[in-house]
Every structure is written in structure tokens, then in C-alpha cells.
Design a protein that fits this description.
Blueprint (H helix, E strand, L loop, with lengths): L1 E6 L7 E5 L8 E10 L2 H8 L10 E2 L3 E6 L2 E6 L14 E5 L3 E3 L6 H4 L2 H14 L7 E4 L7 H10 L3 E6 L5 H6 L4 E4 L5 H4 L7 E4 L3 H10 L5 E4 L12 H6 L3 E4 L7 H17 L6 E6 L3 H10 L5 E5 L2
Parallel strand pairs: 9-10, 9-12, 10-11, 12-13, 13-14, 15-16
Antiparallel strand pairs: 1-2, 1-4, 3-5, 3-7, 3-16, 5-6, 6-8
Helix pairs in contact: 3-4, 3-9
Length: 311
């Protein structure tokens, strides 16, 4: 038996239940879990708004940290919690290919958020080829991905500014290495960054933020778009794109091949061990409070990453 947070009906609160842990099949293992990540995709799953829906009832959660045969590991796959039982439980049965060995010295709470927040931060910063001398503007800098991006970009020697909508969250962004934090909405963004002229913009917001960034960027700048939480449509000044030779990259984590995902995670975990990548944990919720954890994603009360303590 294992204690788990179960999705019984779409749009209804999850239920904490004792469920049978099935016998592992060929090439499957049992991971004893410690912590599990809480992500927007989990909320979408619970509400029935995800593109892929699995059987009901099922255990949600796509990532977690724990132990396999006494060794600390990360378990992660987009299949977990979607097409089969996931990580919001004391234990999970998963294919061995979903399990990643850990370098020494990593924090197991941070590891629990590496499958999505850590890997995304690592990939978008590297996609933009951020380096010493760059001026990097990070939108949504106080979020679960934004804070790791700020810290990772700063570790390269780049000058980093972070954008947030709340002054209450600004100090957390500075603590990760941002030289300046601009507290602004899309309408006032252009004035706030006029003197910065970013060479790189990391953008999970879309809407007017993307349009304003393109106008403010340095020629030959690079923008990486990996979300549209502020809005999925924007009116762009296309002349700015070609006259300034700007590059716009899209990053979609679900498009990664298994090989790309494993290679990226292995590199990101090494960066976590060395201190170049950090995953600030804003709140650790007990498994019994899983529904409150999901609500915190909607009201954005948590600065940094929210995780569950499942054991």
C-alpha cells in the first residue's frame, strides 16, 4: 500500500487515499519518494484542461526525489501523472528510464523540482547562449522557473535584470543575483527598461511583455519564449525584428526527445551540484495539503517553487 493524492473526478479536490502499489513489470522499479514538484500542468490535469488525460482515478505528479535501492534519485516523465500514476505518493512504480542518478551534495527538495523548473531554466538559458557581457532581462523573475533562470544567467557573468509584478517578491530576485528588479506591468515595461537595452530576454509571459521587449532590445538580441501566462496574443512591430536582426526562439519542453531530456537533466543536475543552478523552494506542503498547494499556483502567493513532502 502507498498513501497518495488521487484525482477521482475532474474539477473536484484531490483525495488522499491508501492505494495498492502494483508489482513492477519488466524494466520497472519502485522508488520510495521524499518530495514531489507542484506545477501548473498538474492544476490543468486536475481541472481536466490538459491535452492528454489518463484513467481515473489516478495519482498526479510528474517529478519527485527519493531513493531507489538506497540511492538518492530523481524520477521524472511527462507520462507520470498523465497516463499512469505519478509522484504525489509515498512510492511510485516507474520505468527505469524515468530515473536519474544524482551527483553528490544536491538538496533533495531542490531535486524534486528539477524535472520541470530546473530543466526548463537550464535549457532556455543555454538556448539563448547567455554569457559574460550579456544583459539579460528575465520576465516573471520571482516564479518557480524565473528565479532559477536569474541565478543561472548571473552565474555566467551576465548582467541580469528581473521583472516582477510585486514589490514583495523583489528581494528574492535580487538574492539570486539580479542587479536590478523592475516592478512593472506590460504597459509600463518600456519605460522601466529603456536604459538597459537587453541583449537577451527570457519570456514566459507573452502578451504585451513580448512586444515591449522587442522594441527595447539591443540589435542582434535573442528572445526565448517559453510561455504565455500573461496572454497568448501580441501585436508586434515586425520591422524591429529584421531591422535589428533579432532572433526569437520558442522552447517547448514537451517537444524534447528522451535523449534531449536526459542529456539536459544530467547537465542541469551537475550545475545544481556545483551551485551554478539553484531552485529556491518557496513552500513545502504536506501531502494532506495538496489542494492548498494547487490553489497557491492560481493565486501566486508562493515566491519560488512549491513542492510536496510526500513521506
Amino acid at each position: 500500500m502507498t498513501r497518495a493524492a488521487r484525482l477521482v473526478e475532474y474539477g473536484k479536490p484531490l483525495e488522499i487515499q491508501d492505494v495498492d502499489l502494483r508489482e513492477p513489470g519488466p524494466d520497472e522499479v519502485v522508488i520510495e519518494l521524499l518530495f514531489a514538484g507542484v506545477n501548473p500542468i498538474d492544476r490543468n490535469m486536475a481541472e481536466g484542461r490538459a491535452p492528454t488525460q489518463g484513467p481515473l482515478p489516478r495519482t498526479l505528479g510528474s517529478e519527485g526525489s527519493g531513493r531507489l535501492e538506497g540511492k538518492p534519485v530523481l524520477v521524472f516523465s511527462s507520462v507520470l501523472g498523465a497516463e499512469r500514476d505519478g509522484t504525489w505518493a509515498e512510492a511510485v512504480v516507474a520505468p527505469r528510464e524515468y530515473v536519474f542518478d544524482l551527483p553528490e551534495g544536491v538538496d533533495m527538495q531542490e531535486v524534486a523540482a528539477m524535472g520541470i523548473a530546473g530543466l526548463t531554466a537550464w535549457n532556455v538559458v543555454n538556448l539563448a547562449e547567455v554569457g559574460d557581457g550579456d544583459r539579460v532581462l528575465v520576465f516573471g523573475a520571482a516564479g518557480g522557473v524565473g528565479l532559477p533562470v536569474v541565478g543561472l544567467a548571473a552565474s555566467t557573468g551576465a548582467t541580469v535584470w528581473g521583472q516582477t509584478s510585486s514589490e514583495d517578491k523583489a528581494e528574492a530576485v535580487r538574492a539570486l543575483g539580479a542587479e536590478r528588479v523592475v516592478v512593472t506591468d506590460a504597459a509600463r515595461l518600456a519605460d522601466s527598461i529603456r536604459d538597459f537595452r537587453p541583449t537577451v530576454v527570457i519570456d514566459p509571459l507573452g502578451d504585451g511583455f513580448t512586444a515591449a521587449a522587442l522594441l527595447a532590445m539591443e540589435p542582434r538580441g535573442r528572445l526565448v519564449l517559453f510561455g504565455t501566462s500573461a496572454g497568448a496574443e501580441a501585436t508586434l512591430q515586425l520591422r524591429e525584428l529584421y531591422r535589428k536582426s533579432l532572433s526569437v526562439f520558442g522552447y517547448g519542453g514537451l517537444r524534447l526527445t528522451n535523449e534531449e531530456r536526459r542529456k539536459g537533466l544530467e547537465a542541469a543536475l551537475e550545475a545544481l551540484a556545483s551551485g551554478g543552478l539553484r531552485i529556491p523552494i518557496g513552500r513545502v506542503w504536506p501531502l494532506d495539503d495538496v489542494n492548498r498547494a494547487l490553489e497557491s499556483l492560481a493565486d501566486r502567493t508562493v515566491t519560488g517553487k512549491a513542492i510536496l513532502e510526500v513521506r
